[in-house]
């Protein structure tokens, strides 16, 4: 047994050493060692201090109880029974007491170590410069001091109670307490000892009553967070009275050390319990029932007003610009002429629908993958006309996914030393498409080509990167990392060796052994792929890296990649949050930020998920090549950020250090906007009476393109709001009245960090006497419209299905314009992907449905919308089949020679025209199957010419309903 115990201790110590040392190496690799050491020292300090306090309480009370045990015990059946226990315990009494003390000390120390963030905020927090409405105390007390003092009091209760339990058990076993013996039940020494402990408990209760007074302004009631009329006029006075009652009761117990009679302390304790019941329970109940309930609206008005003001300040929504928007429903020719800055930027490529198109058209190899949904960003590029302008784009990086490696090639060597990184950024214009409905790529292929310029394309750190990769090798050794399938210079597959500074060096035997233990993989010690220059890349997800170097941040759920100054970087937003501000409404962060693009929480919100204060205090980047994490202070006036910067100096760079190329891509964070729109469902109302009545509550409408009842997500889009001088990059959403489907308001925030009005929330409130359809009604109108329904039925015929894209809402033309792209894809087949085939629009009661946005708008506005969309012409093609998709297997088939068939001559009759169509279509299929894209393009040109000739022969009615396949 001693041998097994020693072995167990050694194994546990080794595992702890591995965890500690590998964490230290990781933090050292990202140059955030200070974060690691500060956390470690703080946790160890709290563990030792609070663990020793608990151990001291147990040992001291056990020893005192044993020391004052009665020397002589009266004879009784009870004492005779206890003699057997005393005889058994005495030889090991010290060991039992020591073991109990160690066990409780570990538990107490672990609990205290978990409060390291609360402790650091208490040590480093300052003032907010604002006072609460009830006590006139600076909000810094509630943010930084109150949580720590509340923990100290709760820990004090635990120490006293456990000490009391140990003392009571010891006194009973050794005869100080005699429950069944005639005469005196408790010895005088025991009375003194227990009186001290009970007195400390009651004194702590007095302190708890004092803290409870402040807790009133942070607790939730039936209608809002914060103290209500009953709390202020009944509970608060009761807590104050109970402080004095508890203090007097504690004094009586302390005096009993000399009096040694339970009469007065018992009376005091009974008075405390009675006071708690009458003052803390009955009195508030009576006030609520007979004073508040009959006139609740007027009684609660000042406290509701406090809640409104505190909530709007805490969530940074106090400066929302709200204006009435008298939306028209009538249409006329040229109505959108004044919105020429908004219409061309309408996004038709839905980032949640087109990932399969990215996967099929840009995957290149089966082991590459893209995020789903894709991300939205903007770049300044030159258009076809040479004009340089900012363009909204749907973007993703081509990452490597281990599960895509062919099964016969999946082994430790390939998964962790060969397929180590992705390659390149893929970007598609958000407002245009190819003639067949596929995305119009601005950046594509391997090697990358497009409009984003030169940059380091290798993606070693991303959302789908392998759990770990081993990279690096000495100079002169063969490259082993798969890089690209075909080198432009050699025409052969290209390999690469990582030469960055990211990752943990594992050339030494000690580090290899540590990580062999951590990852439970013997190949760290056995494989010859690991050499003196090897580096281990792990914890590669950008969000996880930021959360690890800044554990005090809540990180936005949607990091996105951007090409910045020749590097691919992941951009993330970090929030500082609190849950202890007075009167600010408390909400579940996960529930408030869930929508159709994010999974709804499967379980009820946990206590640590609730917040009532948030600031977007940090902008963070993670380099996709070397994993460098950089934190920039964004809201430098945030007192919570200042406290954390005091705790972790030099971990956050000042805002002035943000480079200009990065500033061009920063934007208003999505989770913060979703949280704010959730709060504005109620808190757009500032009048307490209206708030109490609840007659003006809004809700975020359900996403009509989703099959489940979840909120519609907000959308990034470049729009020009009514009255604005120029378009702005915005994040937008809509509201409907609670219980009604019609539109109540449109909200947008200036998401462009370069703008002086960045972060300005603006609400266009629709008058209640105008019926403007909400998203759900518009979706229903689309489906129920006879012409649209017929077209959709045709699109859904055969082996095809339609997918509805994001339903965008735009305040243009003096009203509200809804735009929804319609995609078509094969219902089966691994190679199926959606193609944009139609665009649905609605303005007022008018519906447009056409191949292009321009055509749909012109249908509505009497043939001329007045604003060009700059879309290319659309060519109808059948949905793609498995045979029509570029090959994605490991070996690229050799290119075939381009057919030399001359362009088709004008056919003399319809039969010849149909034959020309069939031949051109077959040539296109053959070229696509072999990967000869030049021949494919030439064949499509001949196909277009043949179709045009057939239409001319049939008087423009089409080739008799024939298709190329016929």
Could you explain how this protein is built, in words?
- Helix 2 (33-67) packs antiparallel against helix 4.
- The protein is globular.
- It has 966 residues and is α+β, with helices and mostly antiparallel strands.
- A hairpin with a 5-residue loop joins strand 21 (613-623) and strand 22 (629-633).
- The model is unreliable at 877-907 and 956-966 (pLDDT under 50).
- It contains 25 helices and 32 strands.
- Strands 1, 23, 24, 25, 26 and 27 form a 6-stranded mixed β-sheet that branches. Strands 3-4-7-8-9 form a 5-stranded antiparallel β-sheet, covered by helices on one side. Strands 16, 17, 18, 21 and 22 form a 5-stranded antiparallel β-sheet that branches.
- It starts with a helix and ends in a 13-residue tail after the last helix.
- The longest helix has 35 residues, at 33-67.
- The chain is 41% helix and 17% strand.
Structural class: alpha+beta
Q: Give the strand content.
A: 15-25%
Overall average residue pLDDT = 87
Main sheet specs: 6 strands, mixed
Number of H- or I-type helical stretches: 25
Spans of at least 5 consecutive residues with low confidence: 877-907, 956-966
The CA-CA distance between the termini, in Å, is 84 Å
What overall form do the CA principal axes indicate? globular
Helix content: 40-55%
Tally of DSSP β-strands: 32
Keywords:
disordered C terminus, 5-stranded antiparallel sheet, 6-stranded mixed sheet, 966 residues
Topology:
Layout lengths: L1 H28 L3 H35 L9 H13 L3 H21 L2 H9 L14 H35 L14 H28 L13 H31 L3 H30 L3 H19 L6 E4 L30 H8 L5 E2 L5 E8 L5 E10 L1 E2 L11 H7 L3 E2 L1 E9 L5 E6 L4 E2 L7 E2 L8 E4 L9 E4 L9 E3 L7 E2 L3 H10 L4 H4 L8 E4 L3 H8 L4 E2 L4 E5 L2 E12 L8 E2 H4 L17 E2 L1 E11 L5 E5 L5 H9 L12 H4 L6 H14 L4 H6 L4 E2 L15 E5 L8 E10 L7 E6 L10 E5 L9 H10 L1 H10 L4 E5 L3 E5 L2 E12 L8 E9 L2 E5 L2 H8 L49 H21 L2 H21 L13
Helix pairs in contact: 1-2, 1-13, 2-4, 2-6, 5-6, 5-17, 6-7, 7-8, 8-9, 24-25
């Amino acid at each position: 047994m001693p041998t097994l115990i020693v072995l167990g201790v050694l194994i546990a110590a080794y595992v702890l050493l591995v965890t500690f040392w590998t964490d230290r190496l990781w933090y050292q690799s990202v140059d955030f060692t200070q974060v690691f050491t500060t956390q470690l020292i703080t946790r160890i300090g709290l563990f030792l201090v609070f663990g020793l306090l608990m151990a001291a309480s147990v040992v001291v009370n056990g020893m005192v109880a044993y020391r004052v045990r009665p020397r002589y015990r009266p004879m009784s059946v009870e004492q005779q029974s206890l003699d057997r226990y005393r005889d058994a315990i005495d030889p090991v009494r010290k060991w039992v007491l020591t073991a109990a003390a160690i066990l409780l000390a570990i538990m107490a120390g672990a609990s205290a170590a978990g409060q390291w963030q609360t402790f650091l905020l208490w040590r480093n927090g300052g003032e907010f410069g604002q006072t609460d409405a009830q006590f006139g105390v600076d909000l810094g007390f509630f943010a930084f001091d109150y949580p720590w003092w509340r923990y100290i009091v709760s820990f004090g209760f635990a120490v006293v109670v456990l000490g009391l339990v140990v003392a009571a058990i010891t006194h009973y076993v050794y005869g100080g307490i005699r429950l069944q013996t005639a005469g005196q039940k408790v010895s005088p020494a025991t009375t003194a000892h227990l009186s001290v402990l009970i007195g400390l408990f009651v004194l702590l209760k007095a302190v708890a009553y004092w803290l409870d007074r402040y807790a009133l302004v942070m607790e939730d009631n039936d209608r809002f967070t914060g103290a209500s009329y009953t709390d202020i006029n009944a509970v608060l006075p009761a807590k104050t009275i109970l402080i004095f009652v508890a203090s007097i009761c504690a004094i009586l117990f302390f005096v009993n050390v000399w009096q040694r009679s339970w009469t007065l302390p018992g009376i005091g304790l009974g008075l405390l319990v009675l006071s708690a019941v009458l003052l803390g329970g009955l009195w508030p109940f009576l006030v609520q029932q007979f004073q508040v309930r009959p006139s609740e609206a007027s009684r609660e008005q000042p406290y509701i007003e406090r809640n409104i003001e505190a909530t709007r300040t805490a969530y940074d929504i106090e400066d929302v610009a709200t204006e009435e928007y008298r939306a028209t429903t009538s249409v006329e020719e040229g109505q959108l002429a004044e919105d020429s800055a908004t219409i061309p930027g309408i996004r038709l490529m839905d980032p949640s629908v087109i990932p399969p198109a990215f996967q099929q058209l840009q995957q290149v190899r089966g082991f590459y993958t893209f995020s789903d949904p894709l991300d939205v960003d903007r770049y300044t590029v030159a258009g076809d006309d040479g004009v340089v302008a900012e363009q909204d784009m749907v973007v993703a990086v081509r990452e490597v996914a281990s599960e895509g490696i062919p099964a016969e090639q999946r082994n430790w060597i390939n998964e962790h030393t060969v397929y180590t990184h992705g390659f390149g950024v893929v970007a598609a214009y958000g407002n245009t498409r190819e003639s067949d409905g596929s995305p119009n790529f601005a950046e594509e292929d391997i090697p990358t080509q497009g409009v984003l310029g030169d940059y380091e394309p290798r993606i070693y750190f991303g959302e789908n990167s392998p759990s770990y990769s081993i990279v690096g090798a000495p100079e002169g050794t063969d490259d082993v990392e798969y890089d690209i399938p075909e080198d432009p210079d050699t025409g052969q597959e290209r390999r690469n060796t990582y030469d960055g500074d990211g990752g943990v060096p594992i050339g030494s035997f000690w580090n290899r052994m540590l990580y062999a233990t951590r990852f439970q993989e013997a190949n760290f010690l056995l494989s010859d792929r690991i050499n003196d220059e090897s580096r281990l890349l792990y914890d590669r997800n950008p969000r996880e890296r930021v959360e690890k170097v800044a554990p005090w941040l809540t990180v936005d759920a949607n990091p996105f990649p951007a090409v910045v100054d020749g590097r691919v970087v992941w951009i993330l937003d970090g929030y500082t949050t609190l849950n202890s501000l007075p009167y600010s409404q408390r909400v579940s962060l996960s529930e408030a930020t869930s929508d159709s693009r994010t999974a709804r929480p499967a379980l009820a919100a946990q206590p640590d998920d609730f917040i009532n204060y948030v600031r977007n205090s940090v902008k963070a980047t993670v380099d996709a090549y070397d994993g460098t994490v950089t934190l920039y202070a964004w809201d430098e006036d945030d007192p919570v950020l200042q406290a954390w910067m005091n705790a972790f100096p030099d971990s956050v760079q000042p805002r002035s250090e943000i480079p200009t190329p990065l500033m061009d891509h920063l934007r208003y964070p999505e989770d913060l906007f979703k949280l704010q729109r959730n709060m504005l469902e109620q808190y757009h109302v500032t009048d307490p009476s209206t708030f109490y009545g609840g007659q003006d509550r809004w809700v975020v409408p359900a996403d009509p393109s989703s099959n489940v009842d979840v909120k519609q997500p907000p959308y990034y889009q470049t729009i020009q709001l009514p009255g604005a001088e120029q378009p702005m990059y915005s994040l937008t959403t809509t509201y409907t009245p609670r219980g009604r489907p019609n539109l109540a308001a449109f909200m947008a925030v200036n998401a462009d960090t370069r703008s002086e009005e960045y972060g300005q929330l603006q609400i266009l409130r629709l008058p209640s006497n105008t019926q403007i359809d909400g998203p759900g009604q518009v979706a229903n109108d689309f489906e129920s419209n006879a012409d649209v329904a017929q077209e959709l039925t045709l699109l859904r015929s055969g082996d095809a299905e339609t997918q509805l894209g994001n339903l965008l809402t735009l305040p243009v033309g003096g009203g509200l314009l809804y735009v929804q792209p319609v995609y078509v894809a094969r219902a089966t087949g691994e190679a199926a992907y959606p193609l944009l085939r139609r665009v649905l629009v609605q303005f007022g009661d008018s519906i447009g449905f056409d191949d292009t946005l321009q055509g749909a708008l012109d249908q509505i506005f009497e043939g001329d919308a007045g604003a060009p969309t700059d879309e290319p012409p659309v060519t109808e093609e059948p949905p793609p089949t498995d045979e029509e998709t570029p090959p994605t297997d490991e070996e690229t088939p050799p290119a075939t020679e381009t057919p030399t068939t001359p362009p088709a001559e004008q056919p003399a009759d319809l039969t010849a025209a149909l034959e020309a169509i069939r031949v051109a279509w077959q040539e296109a299929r053959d070229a696509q199957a072999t990967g000869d894209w030049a021949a494919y393009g030439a064949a499509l040109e001949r196909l277009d010419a043949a179709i045009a000739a057939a239409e001319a022969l049939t008087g423009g009615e089409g080739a008799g309903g024939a298709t190329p396949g016929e």
